[in-house]
């Protein structure tokens, strides 16, 4: 396993940082660049690395035999950063602009006639609350909701309502007559087949346990008023509190 550590730097050192506590003084102008950490070229690979830890210099080329070694030996378990390395800043070319804000933009409210937008990959994603700043996962089916207790921010976009026809499989159409069973059984289970008006009814007897009855519908049943097709449409538009719950082992909070 490889483990990476990143050291981020601000691009425009004279602009106040968005992460600075409210009321902090503005950064000094012009910015005073401190003396950077000492660089040394590696005896084994020739690549230059900064002195990152005060315990001693090491090569940071991961393919090098001297990588992560101080004078040829493994470093101590506890290492301390060299303040010069933490405080050094790169002199970027004048007026270089960050490609985009680290804080993601909110999804546009309306994308015209783009029917699939609400089920797009972008819409699975969470958001950074414009009111309190918290980064939230998308948990609710109906909306984006900020998880901060005192914050009431919610956000919605027009959602696509799928028809049963749109997700039907043309190679496995809904039957006009009785349904075709795709059930299978194994072991000591017995199956009894009945036809009850438009239903195909399979009853499975599990020895010493009980029975399971599978009612298989056909088109007449699915399409009747307030039947399964109407329910499918209604459930996509009603708020029945559908949401994602964190997995037991999830570290996402
Ligand atoms: Zn090296
Ligand atoms: Zn993804
Ligand atoms: Zn919020």
Quick structural overview:
This protein is mainly beta. It is built from 4 helices and 9 strands; from the N terminus they run ββααβββββββαα. The protein has helices spanning 83-87, 121-124, 219-223, 228-237, and strands spanning 39-41, 48-50, 127-128, 135-136, 144-145, 154-155, 189-196, 199-206, 210-216.
Structural class: mainly beta
Helix share bin: under 10%
Largest sheet, strands/sense/barrel: 3 strands, antiparallel
Uncertain residue segments: none
Order of helices and strands: EEHHEEEEEEEHH
Shape field: elongated
Strand adjacency order, main sheet: 7-8-9
Intertermini distance:
25 Å
| Overall number of domains | 3
> Which distinct ligands sit in these coordinates?
zinc ion
Number of strands: 9
Q: Output the radius of gyration.
A: 31 Å
Share of β-strand residues? 5-15%
Specify the number of helices: 4
User: Averaging pLDDT over every residue, what do you get?
Assistant: 90
Structural overview:
- The structure is a single chain.
- The protein has 253 residues and is mainly beta.
- The protein has three domains: 9-17 and 25-99, no CATH class; 103-160, no CATH class; 189-237, no CATH class.
- The protein has four helices and nine strands.
- The protein has helices spanning 83-87, 121-124, 219-223, 228-237, and strands at residues 39-41, 48-50, 127-128, 135-136, 144-145, 154-155, 189-196, 199-206, 210-216.
- The strands form four sheets. It has a three-stranded antiparallel sheet with strand order 7-8-9, with no helix packed on it. The protein has a two-stranded antiparallel ribbon with strand order 1-2.
- It is elongated, with a radius of gyration of 31 Å.
- The two termini are 25 Å apart.
- The model has no long low-confidence stretch (mean pLDDT 90).
- The structure holds zinc ion (ZN) (3 copies).
- One zinc ion binds next to loops.
